[in-house]
Amino acid sequence: MGSSGFSSPRSGSFPEGLRVLVVDDDLTCLKILEKMLKKCNYKVTTCNLTREALDLLQERKDGFDIVICDVNMPDMDGFKLLEHVGIKMDLPVIMMSVDGETSRVMKGIQHGACDYLLKPIRIKELQNIWQHVVRKRMHEARDIESQDENQMTRNGKEPSDDRCSFSGDIVSGKKRKTVENKHRHGEHGDPSSEKKARLLWNVELHQKFMKAVHQIGLYKVGPKKILELMGVPSLTRENVASHLQKYRLYLSRLQKENELKAASGGLKLSDIYSKEPAGNVCLQSSMSQNSLTVQRSVHGHDIMNHNHDAKICNANVKGILSVAAEAKTALSTDMTGPALSSNPRISSSHSFGPLHSEVRSAPKIDTQYSWSGGVPSFQFKQEIRPHFQSEQLFDHLPLPMPQLQADCVSHNSTCSSKETDKPIEPNINLYYAQNRSHVKVENTAALFSVQPEPFPCSVWSTTNQGLEQNLYDNVECPEKNLIAGMGSSLRLWDEECISYQGDFSPLDAGGLVHIESVDCSNQGGLIADAPNFHNSVNFECDYHSDQMGYPVIDQGLFIT
Amino acid sequence: MEVDQLQRSFLEYSRLLFHEGFLDGQFSQLQLLQDESNPDFVFEVVSLFFEDSERLLNDLTIALDQQNVDFKKIDAHVHQLKGSSSSIGAQRVKNVCIAFRNFCDEQNVEGCLRCLQQVKQEYLLVKTKLEAQLRLEQQIVAAGGAIPMLNEFC
């Protein structure tokens, strides 16, 4: 077989001649595998050390089509090899082990293995390994095509015509397709080392996206339709598809969060949580108190709530609640979040204080928020738990401040989720929502009975404080709050290295703004902050919000 | 001896080994792999297995003899032994390895020592039997016959 791979004619038919590299420190196994693969008419190379394998792969760049490697290797962890090979060389890698524990298998998949075989391996399992090669090829070809088609400069890759060859040259699509979770965020871009221009889902794009989604209806929506409606030439269907997926994930995340919250607090999240259309929706239903119109519509917002709460506390909740409530609505996963407006008084008398501490404890929040407001779904990699003492919070306020939560969450992340490396973009959005709530909050002082602590600055870095300050300052001016909040929150996130892994595009915050169509005069401030946020956060996703300038956007867009 | 007789003895013996759990379907896989291009495949693989196992058992004995037992190391060895024994189809050896690993997790030296004893025993047993089977095979081949295969265990 020549190095040109399968594209060159061979005596046999595909998959004969598939060039396999087998790596295992167990000589008995190695020998057996070699024999089996030869029986499958594959071309086998064996080695029993990972280093050796890597060297071989380096030397013969195009020399192999697929690699099979044992997980437990003495000189180097099989997973590392997996990363090297899978990512750098873009070859399909099959892991194998005697150990079939789900967690191990999961790890393998997450590191990019295209399959995980359990020893002892039977010959029929090896007969079909060629499918991985073909699949990869197909993905890459598809990627190349789509890349060719769209004007966006994704990466400097040029359409190549030897996609069909099995040579390991195909690098592009790999990142996108492989590895499930790991690369999910950077779907548009290349999460791995490859440098690709990423698609930045900025506010406008997101707004367009949300608009399109609203138009079509969240449940009937499809990337193609959205793409058409959006009318952005440089956007590809894939961009939209992944964005949509994130958004959906966010929504479902919110739902889960809400359910969680419902369980913990007295809130009837289910009531609130909703994909209900605009209107006060949820908020009202679950609130025992009228004042608490805040809907916990945003389930996901619960998380936000936590954060939010924290923030809110400081910010003199009063006005906040309502705003929050509204924000919540905006944030409601359903895009159709009830307009916050309707619930002015979101009596989110959450005790932000406590919340705050809870939030802090949340180490990794893994949430995906999708705002109702066109904020792209972002994924917080945080364990969003109703940290806040739901009891407390809910005593006063059935609805936690959604948006605030968001903030909290983000902050939380700072405290804890350093692991995540995604920018906390979503937070921003949430934050916005929060702000809104601030804005609207009427005097629900009563609701805010709990605000024991000042804004938990301790939890967050000073930025938080700054943020809080913002909140406070802006209490009077709803708009300002919103903006300020956003700005601060952005800052907060920024500084705290919120590792949210999400494709949250801060830009979407604009959506939040929609919530109340608040005209935040502070936009400037917000915007100013936005960049910070983004910068410090590791954005792995495509959403790079360079500008957080979210003008007040008509809420219509977000709250449907 | 007649080829037929040899072959029948061989089959009986193989069947016994399978029934008693010394060998499992994986061994049959190995037998299937043997062909003209590789007439001694099973023999070679089994020999490798013997070498590997003896080395591992030695290492294990030494490791468990230490003042401070390094369970991680022991686990690694057992893991390897488990891997190779399962590849060969040495079922009973593999099973002891599983128990062995559990004791390692628990950091139970006593348990580990017992398992080591057991695994050594099982290893010796399967070694003896495989050697006996291989001898029968050789006799068949020497007498010009083909080695029969036990289909039911594939």
TrEMBL record, chain A:
PROSITE patterns recorded: HTH_MYB (PS51294), RESPONSE_REGULATORY (PS50110)
SUPFAM superfamilies: CheY-like (SSF52172), Homeodomain-like (SSF46689)
GO cellular component annotations of the record: nucleus
Keyword Phosphoprotein attached: yes
Residues modified as 4-aspartylphosphate: D70
Xref: InterPro entries: ARR-like, CheY-like_superfamily, Homeodomain-like_sf, Myb_dom, Myb_dom_plants, SANT/Myb, Sig_transdc_resp-reg_receiver
Location of this chain's protein in the cell: Nucleus
CDD domains registered for this protein in UniProt: REC_typeB_ARR-like
Biased amino acid composition, Basic and acidic residues: 155-164
Signal peptide residues on this chain, from the entry's feature table: none
UniProt keywords, alphabetically: Activator, Nucleus, Phosphoprotein, Transcription, Transcription regulation, Two-component regulatory system
Gene Ontology MF terms in the entry: DNA binding
Protein name: Two-component response regulator ORR26
Taxonomy of the source species: Eukaryota, Viridiplantae, Streptophyta, Embryophyta, Tracheophyta
Automatic annotation (TrEMBL), chain B:
Residue positions, PTM Phosphohistidine: H79
Spans traversing the lipid bilayer: none
GO biological process: cytokinin-activated signaling pathway; phosphorelay signal transduction system
Phylogenetic lineage: Eukaryota, Viridiplantae, Streptophyta, Embryophyta, Tracheophyta
Single GO MF annotation: protein histidine kinase binding
Tree of life domain: Eukaryota
Intracellular or extracellular location(s): Cytoplasm, Cytosol; Nucleus
Name of protein: Histidine-containing phosphotransfer protein
Organism from which the protein derives: Sesamum alatum
